[in-house]
Write the structure tokens for this entry.
Amino acid sequence: MNLNNIPKHLKQYIVDQEYERYTIIDHRVWQFIMNISIPFFKKHAHSSYYDGLNKTGITFDKIPSIELMNEKMSIIGWGAVPVRGFIPPWAFMEFQALGILPIACDMRSRQHLTYTPAPDIVHESAGHSPIIINEEYSNYLKLYGKIASKAVFSKEDENIYFAIRKLSDIKEDKNASKKDIIIAEEELVEAKKSQTTPSEATLLSRLHWWTVEYGLIGKINNPKIYGAGLLSSVGESQNCLSPNVKKIPLTIDCINFNYDITEHQPQLFVAENFSSLTDILLEFEKTMSFKNNDSKKFQNHLKEDVIKITELNDISINSIDKEICELYNMFFNKEIEAENLIKKLDVDFPNEWLLRFELYQNNHHLNYDWVENLKNYLINYNKDNLDLNNAINRALKLI
């Protein structure tokens, strides 16, 4: 995909991936997620998933380069660009209509391994890209982008977008105070209250959520996963297949179901096949203003707030723990004895589970008490966070 052909008004959202800023911890978090996700999704995701990882440039042992992803995806008629956080939905849809996948290039922290409140490269690349190799699904995405770009957006939609983006960035910022989060949450509540009647854009966003983000496909009693939100969630991808989550055959009625981005979904919709997604989209298109009235008064094109977008793009939600990064490097370079590393972790980093996992993974075959103690630590780590605890135990089973 030749990115020089991107319209000027969309280029303001594109940032430099700054690949060198990823720390050794970022790459180990990525590898951990891929190691436990791929075996699960080989069994429970749509058949396009695994092949799609390779064909769209998703690397398993380190965070992928978006530039290399773009080169790989150009072979299947798509492209990829790096962006920062949530971009406005109207811009996202225009990118999608052009066959370009915007990829938020920030990396989730190990504290937010199973869920991140801000878009990150796990969700945007390993979640969104694999199923694109399916031609029917790819066509649906592009058509959805074209139709959604014609939807009526309200000023309330714009306010909700900026409130969501601000809240997600603050929640992912480890330096943010509880007061900062509370204020941002209140701003989002107020923004949502102002929208009394859902706009066309809101209704279409629900269709997008229940298909592209949280879609299941196949048989209602044994569906496969294709939604990016599920393909990038270590916790919800397992939970969603349980009987506790209601499975509903996908129809246009899904637009009447709102969603909460901060909670596991209580119900999911199962498409019979990918062609049915296009049928439902075209059914909704018939109800849209541009189809039913020639007057341009129904076309509400929002003016981009360039200054606000630039400010948001300049916010870095990554924080580098230099001391713990140094310990990782010392461990992988074999510059510190295992027992000394454990003592250092116990004193200075009692909640650093991932380095302990790396240590156990490399020494699990040894018959020492400290190895067994490491295993017990990991098995019992943060049982209040069931998704994270489950993820760690899944990784231990793979060892």
